[in-house]
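User: Second chain of the day. Same drill as before.
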Amino acid sequence: MEQYHSLNLSSAKGLKIELCKSDPSLAAATFSLFFSDLAPVDFDMTEGTVILSSPSGFKQQLVQQKYAGLLAEKFQQILGFEVNIEIVTKSGDLEEEPSQDVSAETSASFTFDNFVVGSGNQFAYSACQRVAASPGTVYNPLFIYGRSGLGKTHLLLAIQNEILRTNPNASILYTTSENFSNDMVSFLAQKNMEEFHNKYRKNDVLLIDDVQFLQNKMGFQEEFFHTFNALTQVNHQIIITSDRPPREIDTLTDRLRTRFESGLLADIQPPDIETRTAIVKKKAQQYNLHIPTSVAEFIANKLKNNIRQLEGAVKKLSAMTAITGKGGEITLEMAESAIRDVQTDSMPVAVRTEKIIEYIAKYYGVPVEDILSNKRNSNVALARQVASYVLIEITGQTLDAVGQALGGKNHSTIHYSVNLVKQKMTEDPEFKNTVFEIINNIQE
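Assistant: Same format as last time:
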């Protein structure tokens, strides 16, 4: 029987890749040395890039040079489309929100002082400050929600760092719902649930990121319910983040939803133009860059939905100045070049439409040409129907315009597809979440 090494990349958008032991280039020693400690950082389905981290520069270079092709091949077998593999060091060359497994060194850089406050996050920011000043006595639980890339994890870690600053002996655990689930499976396998309970129920403060991923896991929800009760009954603080409010996590049990709603719900909205400009300026300070206000406003006007994109643009400007060896002021032309790869909202509608169709084709593993054709096999038909709905939601085009973009379909066909998707979303919570995920990923 063929044996496999299992490299769990589940926190990178739910992926799990299995590397075949029989491959001569992956002997057990090789796997142990170079692959076993790879960790997921990000998976950008729009760009088709998987980013993994390695603990040392030497390993990072070797894996990138020698094994990136093999990793790409394995991902393609699972996903059905090609991806690029990028290996970074764990010290990180991504200056964004932290990845799911946050080191103490990385998390220490997330504070209230370097969080840019604006009208869209003022309420959540103030609530987090109050909780940090008096954990377990106000707003327990605190439930922070908002789309990806708006700073939820930053606020979680800012709470952690502020509490530890004033009380270094406080017992605080930051984790994700996914890690909670993985730990439960591991401790169950070891028949050692007492240790699991000690890990999660003996903390002064429990910080849980991305709780929406518990939605279809009833056994884990049951365990989390008891963990929640054990902590709140002794006035220990719980702070939770999600990409949506509790009422929209469709398969969440009623009693867990009630617990979440019993505290304070604080939403984070996309930042306004002033806040986005301030984020660009503050990030530039961290890189010792001087970005004129006019250029910062240009970037902020072009990148509207995601703080990570703003930070990524500044990071790219920093890299451009380092690579060219040219100091001095950042110009508008440089900014245009820096945002070209991530700019979406200001693209011409035709370009955005093309990119949306390409993304959905990749998501469902079908060729773009099939979506634009009259093929009616189930996977292609579903991708076409979802594309119809998503195009109207994001671009606001008419049914006729969307029909033309999808290969010349008529008004009634698009109308039927959109209604079909809406009906399925009301009947199937999992499908609804899939559509929301597609929209969120496209807009990030």
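The CA atoms of residues 178 and 301 lie 35 Å apart.

User: Great, on to the next one.
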